[in-house]
Design a protein that fits this description.
Layout lengths: L9 H8 L27 H26 L12 H11 L16 H9 L7 H4 L2 H18 L2 H17 L1 H14 L1
Helix pairs in contact: 2-3
């Protein structure tokens, strides 16, 4: 299928993108279009979005993009910044019904607490929590330890320790010790 087959005819494309640029300016938080707000239960989906959703959501998305830029999300492939967490926290705290309440962190929001009880998050990978310098130090220390353990004298020492543990039945001795301690 040629690429052009999936495209709209030029007249439709012009109609889609011919709106004045001022139409795309983001509204301020809570700023609704001029006119009487329609009944939310009887209005069209477009009116509902324009009067009730976009005045709150669009400033939140703009704040999300600014925060993502601060967190340098656009510079690398991986980051600890979770956009849905930021947007959830932002929308919750900017809710007009919570105007006089103090700022609430994401994990203190009641519905987030309830959700995380049933759906715990996996831990954040260590590669996202440490810097490249800290990662290089860990890798280098592991490599130095490996090279030392490969040394013939160290191998001999490790074999001697293993043999000593087996001869003295150290696991059995430790188990008996703790059994006596628990009996006291």
């Amino acid at each position: 299928v040629p690429l052009e087959a999936g495209m709209l005819p030029p007249s439709d494309m012009e109609r889609l993108f011919s709106a004045p640029a001022a139409q795309y300016l983001l509204p301020e938080l809570g700023e609704t279009p001029s006119g009487e707000p329609p009944d939310p239960k009887k209005c069209s989906p477009r009116e509902y979005l324009e009067f009730y959703v976009f005045p709150v959501l669009l400033p939140g998305l703009a704040a999300l993009l600014h925060e993502a830029e601060k967190e340098k999300c656009f510079e690398g492939k991986r980051t600890t910044f979770i956009a849905s967490d930021f947007l959830t926290e932002w929308l919750y705290n900017k809710n007009p019904k919570r105007k006089d309440e103090s700022f609430t962190e994401l994990f203190s929001i009641p519905f987030v607490k309830d959700w995380l009880k049933d759906h715990p998050r996996p831990p954040i990978p260590l590669s996202l929590l440490i810097s490249e310098e800290e990662a290089s130090i860990l890798i280098q220390s592991f490599w130095r330890g490996y090279r030392v353990r490969c040394d013939d004298e160290i191998q001999e020492l490790r074999q001697w320790q293993k043999k000593l543990r087996e001869e003295r039945h150290i696991k059995k001795v430790v188990k008996e010790f703790w059994t006596k301690q628990e009996a006291k």
